Amino acid sequence: MKPGLVMAVAVLIAAFPGSATHDDDGPKATWPKAQYDIFNSNVNSKAPGRGTDISTFEVLWEYHWGAAQSAPLSVADLDADGMEEILIVNDKLGDFTPITAFSGPLWSYDDYGRTRAYSTPASTDVDGDGTLDAVFGLESIGGLYAISGSGELIWSIPTSGRAQTQPIIFDFNSDGVDEILFNYYTIQTVNDKALPSINGVLNLANLRGEVFWSYIQGQGTTDYAPVLVDLDADGQMEIVGGRLLLKSKQSETCALCWELGDRTYGTVLYGLGLDFLTPAVDPINPVVTEKELFEYQLEGLPVRSPMAADYDGDGEMEVAFATTVPDQWNDTYGGELYVLDNGTLHSYLPQAPVYWGVATMDVLGDTRPEIVLGTIEGVEIVGYTNGGFELLRTFDTDSGYMISGADFDLDGTLEIVVGSVMPSSDPSIDAGRVTVLDLEGTIRYQSPTHPHGIRHFVVVDVDTDGDLEIVMLSSNGYIFIAGD
Length: 484
Known about the structure:
Helix content is 1%, strand content 45%. By secondary structure, it is mainly β.
């Protein structure tokens, strides 16, 4: 494999300390730029400079943004003042608002009008002025937008469909200049209902906002960003992603689709290779051809993005991917965990039905990453070796809606961070909280239960003081920062 790529995700995280770092070439993109964690987009913590006692955590700041929220958040120091901003795109109105930790909104941008948005903002220096800018997509009206750190529109790329996943910013052709990978899907009406059409589209754009490559993937939505991994050890990253198939029962059905109401659901795990023409005639708009590597049709819905790591320690990268099969009427779940290893797809049926959380991290500290799976009963830690799965630990917590990890106390062992959805006294909403567990399953920290649920969180040194904090976002627009 490509030297330097075969390592545990925990090592990857530690290799990028701090937040937006600066060097002679200007600021580097902060999380969630792809190289912070190119194998796993579901572990989002950044390494601190010193340790902290997670048992002393408390809620340090609470801010009501005032908007119902389902879109994920990210962080970046957009105004270069040493304090991270929390980046949120309003999923109901579409306005993009960086919120300075422990203060409030930096500014807000909404010149494109009211729209829905589910895209996690990415950040890099788009305009070359030495400060970070934000890049995100819009759902209802479509389009990819680059907004400067001062709140001005740099450029926008119109799309013919919904661009609702996190853009990936990466130097795909290793020429020293980043490109932006983003996807969208169009909408068609079937039997008077809006259903995704066959046109899911992947795109590459340069930092000037010009698309130089597009690829029609085929039927299916693109709700989660793909992952980048060098599968064939040629020094070029391949794209691995999951697409949700969604069809009406009256339309052509797929072999493994799962039925709910008047629709059928299924998932496609795909791999795509890119080949850049060299030498490039135009370095800004290179000529790119694609090669379809694999496509597997699976049962259920995608559980976040695929992940990749050397799970079995054989020096080659494997891809892990999970699906879930919820039933909205009786609350039962199914789903499986899959590992693609050297062209063979292996599956694992968890002890408890899969919920929505999954992450890859070296939680045992043995330099080989494990898969941490969220279930309706808590957490399962699963190891993989040469086609075989081993259930290593189970922890009974709240349901595992979102999973992450961080070494809060710098003892060399990751703690597991679980965002949960729980029943509420109001049957129309779900409550939620964040729990931090050590390797023995001991609860080191548990946030207060929020009646509207903790939809998303990130673990990050948000105030750049050297200690990690947990930034949480509730479904009704509250931001909480927990730390010591």
